[in-house]
Amino acid sequence: MKALQYSEYGPSSVLHVVDVDEPQPGPGQVRVRVRAVGINPFDWKVRSGAFGDTTPTRLPVIPHGDVSGVVDAVGPAAAGAGEGVAPKVGEEVFGVAAGGGAAEFAVLKFWVAKPAGMSFEEAAGLPGVVEAAGRSLTLLGLDKGQTIVVNGAAGGVGIAATQLAVARGATVIGTASERNHEFLRSLGAVPVTYGEGLVDRVRAVAPQGVDLALDTAGRGAVADLITLTGVPANVVSLVDFDAPKLGARVTDGSEGRAWDTLREAADLYHQGRFTMPVERVFPFADAAAAHDLSQSGHVRGKVILVP
Protein backbone atom coordinates (compact mmCIF):
# COMPACT_ATOMS: atom_id res chain seq x y z
CA MET A 1 0.00 0.00 0.00
CA LYS A 2 1.00 3.65 -0.36
CA ALA A 3 1.95 5.50 2.81
CA LEU A 4 3.45 8.80 3.83
CA GLN A 5 6.78 8.34 5.61
CA TYR A 6 9.93 10.07 6.79
CA SER A 7 13.21 8.36 7.71
CA GLU A 8 14.93 11.38 9.25
CA TYR A 9 13.84 14.38 11.28
CA GLY A 10 13.85 17.75 9.62
CA PRO A 11 11.78 20.17 7.51
CA SER A 12 8.66 19.15 5.65
CA SER A 13 10.77 18.06 2.68
CA VAL A 14 11.68 14.84 4.55
CA LEU A 15 8.15 13.54 3.84
CA HIS A 16 7.85 11.00 1.02
CA VAL A 17 5.25 8.59 -0.33
CA VAL A 18 6.49 4.98 -0.14
CA ASP A 19 5.24 1.40 -0.54
CA VAL A 20 4.80 -0.57 2.70
CA ASP A 21 2.94 -3.69 3.84
CA GLU A 22 -0.69 -3.40 4.88
CA PRO A 23 -1.19 -3.50 8.68
CA GLN A 24 -3.33 -6.16 10.36
CA PRO A 25 -5.74 -5.44 13.23
CA GLY A 26 -4.94 -6.97 16.60
CA PRO A 27 -7.22 -7.59 19.59
CA GLY A 28 -9.51 -4.64 20.21
CA GLN A 29 -8.63 -2.99 16.90
CA VAL A 30 -10.15 -2.42 13.47
CA ARG A 31 -8.55 -1.73 10.13
CA VAL A 32 -9.94 0.95 7.85
CA ARG A 33 -9.44 1.93 4.27
CA VAL A 34 -8.32 5.48 4.94
CA ARG A 35 -10.33 8.29 3.40
CA ALA A 36 -8.76 11.27 5.18
CA VAL A 37 -6.07 12.12 7.75
CA GLY A 38 -5.91 15.12 10.08
CA ILE A 39 -2.74 17.12 10.81
CA ASN A 40 -2.04 18.26 14.37
CA PRO A 41 0.82 20.49 15.56
CA PHE A 42 2.23 17.48 17.40
CA ASP A 43 2.78 15.79 14.04
CA TRP A 44 5.05 18.43 12.54
CA LYS A 45 6.79 19.01 15.86
CA VAL A 46 7.76 15.33 16.00
CA ARG A 47 8.77 15.39 12.32
CA SER A 48 11.03 18.40 12.94
CA GLY A 49 12.84 16.65 15.81
CA ALA A 50 11.63 19.30 18.27
CA PHE A 51 11.18 16.73 21.03
CA GLY A 52 14.74 15.44 20.75
CA ASP A 53 15.39 12.31 22.78
CA THR A 54 11.82 12.35 24.11
CA THR A 55 10.30 11.78 20.67
CA PRO A 56 7.93 8.84 21.25
CA THR A 57 8.68 6.96 18.05
CA ARG A 58 11.43 5.31 16.02
CA LEU A 59 12.45 5.97 12.46
CA PRO A 60 11.21 5.45 9.82
CA VAL A 61 7.83 6.93 10.73
CA ILE A 62 4.41 6.83 9.13
CA PRO A 63 3.00 10.01 10.70
CA HIS A 64 -0.43 11.15 11.85
CA GLY A 65 -2.91 9.52 14.19
CA ASP A 66 -6.24 11.16 13.30
CA VAL A 67 -8.03 9.10 10.68
CA SER A 68 -11.41 8.62 9.05
CA GLY A 69 -12.29 5.74 6.79
CA VAL A 70 -14.32 2.63 6.10
CA VAL A 71 -13.87 -0.51 8.22
CA ASP A 72 -12.52 -3.39 6.15
CA ALA A 73 -11.29 -5.79 8.86
CA VAL A 74 -12.15 -6.30 12.54
CA GLY A 75 -9.83 -7.68 15.21
CA PRO A 76 -10.97 -9.84 18.16
CA ALA A 77 -13.05 -8.11 20.85
CA ALA A 78 -13.14 -4.81 18.99
CA ALA A 79 -15.46 -2.06 20.23
CA GLY A 80 -15.28 1.68 19.71
CA ALA A 81 -14.70 4.47 22.21
CA GLY A 82 -17.70 4.49 24.51
CA GLU A 83 -19.60 2.25 22.05
CA GLY A 84 -19.35 -1.26 23.49
CA VAL A 85 -20.38 -2.71 20.12
CA ALA A 86 -18.06 -4.17 17.51
CA PRO A 87 -18.23 -2.33 14.18
CA LYS A 88 -19.16 -4.03 10.94
CA VAL A 89 -17.12 -4.20 7.77
CA GLY A 90 -18.25 -1.29 5.63
CA GLU A 91 -19.03 1.02 8.57
CA GLU A 92 -17.77 4.59 8.27
CA VAL A 93 -15.76 5.63 11.34
CA PHE A 94 -13.24 8.13 12.62
CA GLY A 95 -10.68 7.68 15.36
CA VAL A 96 -7.06 7.24 16.37
CA ALA A 97 -4.51 5.03 14.66
CA ALA A 98 -2.54 2.48 16.65
CA GLY A 99 0.42 3.18 14.38
CA GLY A 100 0.83 5.55 11.47
CA GLY A 101 -2.41 6.78 9.99
CA ALA A 102 -1.17 8.44 6.80
CA ALA A 103 -1.56 5.40 4.57
CA GLU A 104 -4.10 3.69 2.36
CA PHE A 105 -4.96 1.39 5.29
CA ALA A 106 -4.63 2.05 9.03
CA VAL A 107 -5.37 0.16 12.23
CA LEU A 108 -7.43 2.09 14.77
CA LYS A 109 -7.34 1.65 18.55
CA PHE A 110 -10.19 4.10 19.36
CA TRP A 111 -13.03 5.07 17.05
CA VAL A 112 -16.67 6.08 16.80
CA ALA A 113 -19.18 5.90 13.97
CA LYS A 114 -18.98 8.83 11.59
CA PRO A 115 -22.25 10.79 11.68
CA ALA A 116 -24.28 10.79 8.49
CA GLY A 117 -23.74 14.06 6.70
CA MET A 118 -20.25 14.58 8.12
CA SER A 119 -17.58 14.42 5.43
CA PHE A 120 -14.57 12.16 5.86
CA GLU A 121 -12.40 15.28 5.78
CA GLU A 122 -14.32 16.88 8.65
CA ALA A 123 -14.22 13.65 10.63
CA ALA A 124 -10.46 13.24 10.24
CA GLY A 125 -9.99 16.65 11.82
CA LEU A 126 -11.70 15.69 15.06
CA PRO A 127 -10.00 12.97 17.14
CA GLY A 128 -6.90 14.67 18.55
CA VAL A 129 -8.41 18.10 19.09
CA VAL A 130 -11.66 16.79 20.55
CA GLU A 131 -9.82 14.52 22.98
CA ALA A 132 -7.48 17.31 24.07
CA ALA A 133 -10.38 19.71 24.55
CA GLY A 134 -12.44 17.22 26.53
CA ARG A 135 -9.48 16.23 28.70
CA SER A 136 -8.67 19.87 29.46
CA LEU A 137 -12.23 20.81 30.38
CA THR A 138 -12.45 17.77 32.67
CA LEU A 139 -9.17 18.71 34.34
CA LEU A 140 -10.49 22.22 34.89
CA GLY A 141 -13.71 20.84 36.37
CA LEU A 142 -15.92 22.99 34.15
CA ASP A 143 -19.49 23.32 35.46
CA LYS A 144 -22.67 24.71 33.99
CA GLY A 145 -22.93 28.45 34.55
CA GLN A 146 -19.20 29.09 34.80
CA THR A 147 -17.26 31.50 32.59
CA ILE A 148 -14.16 30.21 30.80
CA VAL A 149 -11.59 31.95 28.62
CA VAL A 150 -10.31 29.85 25.71
CA ASN A 151 -7.04 31.30 24.44
CA GLY A 152 -6.63 30.44 20.77
CA ALA A 153 -10.31 29.72 20.24
CA ALA A 154 -10.09 29.63 16.42
CA GLY A 155 -7.54 26.81 16.31
CA GLY A 156 -8.52 23.15 16.25
CA VAL A 157 -8.49 22.49 20.01
CA GLY A 158 -9.93 25.93 20.71
CA ILE A 159 -12.86 25.36 18.34
CA ALA A 160 -13.58 21.99 19.95
CA ALA A 161 -13.24 23.32 23.51
CA THR A 162 -15.49 26.29 22.77
CA GLN A 163 -18.31 24.14 21.43
CA LEU A 164 -18.02 21.52 24.18
CA ALA A 165 -18.05 24.21 26.87
CA VAL A 166 -21.05 25.99 25.33
CA ALA A 167 -22.90 22.66 25.10
CA ARG A 168 -22.15 22.03 28.78
CA GLY A 169 -23.75 25.33 29.73
CA ALA A 170 -20.70 27.57 30.19
CA THR A 171 -20.11 31.11 29.00
CA VAL A 172 -17.08 31.12 26.68
CA ILE A 173 -14.82 34.07 25.96
CA GLY A 174 -12.59 33.17 23.03
CA THR A 175 -9.39 34.93 22.02
CA ALA A 176 -8.59 35.19 18.32
CA SER A 177 -7.60 37.66 15.63
CA GLU A 178 -10.38 39.99 14.51
CA ARG A 179 -10.90 38.10 11.26
CA ASN A 180 -12.16 35.14 13.34
CA HIS A 181 -14.48 37.06 15.65
CA GLU A 182 -17.66 36.51 13.65
CA PHE A 183 -16.83 32.82 13.39
CA LEU A 184 -16.44 32.56 17.17
CA ARG A 185 -19.81 34.27 17.63
CA SER A 186 -21.32 31.58 15.41
CA LEU A 187 -20.00 28.99 17.87
CA GLY A 188 -21.64 30.77 20.78
CA ALA A 189 -18.51 32.45 22.17
CA VAL A 190 -17.82 36.08 23.05
CA PRO A 191 -14.72 37.01 20.99
CA VAL A 192 -11.85 39.20 22.15
CA THR A 193 -8.55 39.99 20.44
CA TYR A 194 -5.47 38.34 21.92
CA GLY A 195 -2.25 40.16 22.77
CA GLU A 196 -1.36 43.16 24.89
CA GLY A 197 -4.33 44.49 26.85
CA LEU A 198 -6.06 41.10 26.99
CA VAL A 199 -6.95 41.39 30.68
CA ASP A 200 -8.77 44.68 30.19
CA ARG A 201 -10.62 43.46 27.10
CA VAL A 202 -11.84 40.31 28.86
CA ARG A 203 -12.94 42.23 31.93
CA ALA A 204 -14.89 44.60 29.70
CA VAL A 205 -17.01 41.74 28.32
CA ALA A 206 -17.09 39.71 31.56
CA PRO A 207 -17.52 42.17 34.44
CA GLN A 208 -18.81 39.29 36.55
CA GLY A 209 -15.33 37.73 36.39
CA VAL A 210 -13.77 34.61 34.95
CA ASP A 211 -13.76 31.20 36.62
CA LEU A 212 -11.45 29.15 34.41
CA ALA A 213 -9.05 29.50 31.49
CA LEU A 214 -7.70 27.12 28.85
CA ASP A 215 -4.56 28.05 26.91
CA THR A 216 -4.34 26.34 23.53
CA ALA A 217 -2.14 28.91 21.79
CA GLY A 218 0.70 29.96 24.10
CA ARG A 219 1.99 33.40 23.14
CA GLY A 220 2.85 34.10 26.79
CA ALA A 221 -0.81 34.36 27.79
CA VAL A 222 -0.68 32.25 30.96
CA ALA A 223 0.19 35.15 33.27
CA ASP A 224 -2.78 37.15 31.96
CA LEU A 225 -5.08 34.15 32.33
CA ILE A 226 -3.99 33.74 35.95
CA THR A 227 -4.73 37.41 36.56
CA LEU A 228 -8.22 36.92 35.13
CA THR A 229 -9.10 33.79 37.12
CA GLY A 230 -7.33 34.87 40.30
CA VAL A 231 -6.39 31.24 40.96
CA PRO A 232 -3.33 29.82 39.15
CA ALA A 233 -4.63 26.24 39.36
CA ASN A 234 -7.75 27.33 37.45
CA VAL A 235 -5.60 27.79 34.34
CA VAL A 236 -4.63 24.81 32.18
CA SER A 237 -2.29 25.01 29.19
CA LEU A 238 -1.80 22.50 26.42
CA VAL A 239 1.24 24.24 24.98
CA ASP A 240 3.12 26.31 27.59
CA PHE A 241 5.22 23.85 29.56
CA ASP A 242 6.56 26.66 31.74
CA ALA A 243 3.05 27.32 33.07
CA PRO A 244 3.65 25.32 36.30
CA LYS A 245 6.33 27.85 37.26
CA LEU A 246 3.45 30.32 37.65
CA GLY A 247 1.22 27.81 39.45
CA ALA A 248 -0.90 26.92 36.42
CA ARG A 249 -1.28 23.37 35.16
CA VAL A 250 -0.22 21.62 31.96
CA THR A 251 -1.90 18.64 30.36
CA ASP A 252 -0.13 16.40 27.86
CA GLY A 253 -2.31 13.31 28.12
CA SER A 254 0.00 11.43 30.47
CA GLU A 255 -2.65 11.71 33.20
CA GLY A 256 -5.16 9.85 31.04
CA ARG A 257 -7.06 10.35 27.82
CA ALA A 258 -10.66 11.41 27.20
CA TRP A 259 -11.52 9.41 24.09
CA ASP A 260 -15.17 9.19 25.13
CA THR A 261 -15.39 12.87 24.14
CA LEU A 262 -15.39 11.69 20.51
CA ARG A 263 -18.86 10.27 21.11
CA GLU A 264 -19.98 13.55 22.72
CA ALA A 265 -18.77 15.51 19.69
CA ALA A 266 -20.50 13.10 17.29
CA ASP A 267 -23.77 13.44 19.23
CA LEU A 268 -23.48 17.24 19.18
CA TYR A 269 -22.87 17.11 15.42
CA HIS A 270 -26.13 15.17 15.02
CA GLN A 271 -27.83 18.03 16.90
CA GLY A 272 -26.25 20.70 14.71
CA ARG A 273 -24.17 21.97 17.64
CA PHE A 274 -20.66 20.95 16.61
CA THR A 275 -18.51 21.73 13.60
CA MET A 276 -14.85 21.65 12.64
CA PRO A 277 -13.84 23.81 9.66
CA VAL A 278 -11.47 22.32 7.12
CA GLU A 279 -8.98 24.96 5.99
CA ARG A 280 -7.63 22.95 3.06
CA VAL A 281 -7.26 19.40 1.75
CA PHE A 282 -4.00 18.09 0.26
CA PRO A 283 -3.10 14.75 -1.40
CA PHE A 284 -0.34 12.71 0.23
CA ALA A 285 2.00 13.81 -2.57
CA ASP A 286 1.68 17.41 -1.33
CA ALA A 287 2.15 16.57 2.35
CA ALA A 288 5.09 18.97 2.67
CA ALA A 289 2.89 21.91 1.68
CA ALA A 290 0.19 20.71 4.06
CA HIS A 291 2.65 20.57 6.98
CA ASP A 292 3.95 24.04 6.10
CA LEU A 293 0.43 25.48 6.09
CA SER A 294 -0.41 23.88 9.43
CA GLN A 295 2.86 25.10 10.91
CA SER A 296 2.24 28.66 9.69
CA GLY A 297 -0.28 29.17 12.48
CA HIS A 298 -2.68 30.99 10.15
CA VAL A 299 -5.27 28.25 9.98
CA ARG A 300 -8.90 28.19 11.09
CA GLY A 301 -9.73 24.61 11.96
CA LYS A 302 -7.81 21.77 10.35
CA VAL A 303 -5.53 20.91 7.44
CA ILE A 304 -6.34 17.49 5.97
CA LEU A 305 -4.48 14.90 3.88
CA VAL A 306 -6.12 12.35 1.58
CA PRO A 307 -4.57 9.24 -0.02
Automatic annotation (TrEMBL):
SMART domains: PKS_ER (SM00829). InterPro entries: ADH-like_N (IPR013154), Chloroplast_QOR (IPR052733), ER (IPR020843), GroES-like_sf (IPR011032), NAD(P)-bd_dom_sf (IPR036291). Pfam families: ADH_N, ADH_zinc_N_2. One of its GO terms (molecular function) is oxidoreductase activity. Gene3D superfamilies: Medium-chain alcohol dehydrogenases, catalytic domain (3.90.180.10), NAD(P)-binding Rossmann-like Domain (3.40.50.720). Residues 10-305 form the Enoyl reductase (ER) domain. This is NADP-dependent oxidoreductase. It comes from Dactylosporangium aurantiacum.
